[in-house]
Write a structure and sequence with these properties.
Number of helices: 0
Shape: globular
Radius of gyration: 19 Å
Order of helices and strands: EEEEEEEEEEEEEEEEEEEEEEEEEEEEEE
Helix content: under 10%
Largest sheet: 5 strands, antiparallel
Strand order of the largest sheet: 1-11-10-9-8
Distance between the termini: 53 Å
Amino acid sequence: MDRRAVLALAGSALAAPAWQRARPAAAAAPVPPGYRVTWFDAATPGSGRVGSRDVTAAGDGTFWFCGQRNGTLNRLDPKTGAVRVVNLGQGAAPHGVIRGPDGAAWVTEGGQNAIARVDPGDHRVQLWRLPERFPNANLNTGVFDERGTYWFTGQNGVYGRFEPRSERMEVWEAPRGRGPYGITRTPQGGIWYVSLAGNHLAQIEDLDTARVRIVEPPTPNQGARRVWSDKQGRLWISEWNSGNVSMHDPRDGSWKAWRLPGERPRAYSVWVDPADKVWLTDFPANAIVRFDPANESFVSFPSDRANANVRQMDGVSGEAWGGESGTDRIVRIEYGL
């Protein structure tokens, strides 16, 4: 198979329907002063279970979110609660989504073992499949470097890059096999990923050769799941097994770690807001948790429904967003009110 082949999805069966109004947003539960929580239904009439998970800002006030269960990428308008549904193709099971330098939504599409691009205007879908020798990468998360190259991870032991201009796809076996999960870019231009099964942090040390350098966290078997950079280039990591949020500063090689509140926390997502406050999700606590590094304090925002299972968060200034994969809802936390 030509690894640069493009599959454009069109036609009545796969065309995106018109904006559909979801059911009214739920009333917010009591929260600490200065915050407001709102839930939006991710499901539309006839959509079935959505599996609303990773989210990202579309740049115009709307938000993209993956529908892992029904093979869709969706666009939520918070002003109206309306959802635009984009079908990604037969067998699709999207995992992660980010907004690219071109303004489009870029998706790690694990069901079709492909990188997908959804045009922000007409919602046309393009797919670039991975090489045949990587038939089931279990694609996870992507990020763009400063040159416009898209880097991505696959839990079954791969990492790769895609050049949109040349449509060149390159994929490599990860140095320690299974586990590559979250990935981030620092303001200094570095590309880093974490390995859940491999329990480590890794740097794409050379963006030309794609050489990887392993960095060992101080907590053994921590289950590093997601990673996000703050404005200083410090790397914040959600540790699934340990229940910690840890911070690695590449400038001096130092590490710090804080355990999330509760008896048995499991940190899934991590997102650093524009003020360098750290947002995490804790499945056992059924909550989103905000961590302030300045005073080392936590604030928790439990869901009003059981088994919310909020996946990767994102947001804009004054707003933190996440997908409740267990309830088919999108949650917004407004802060600094």
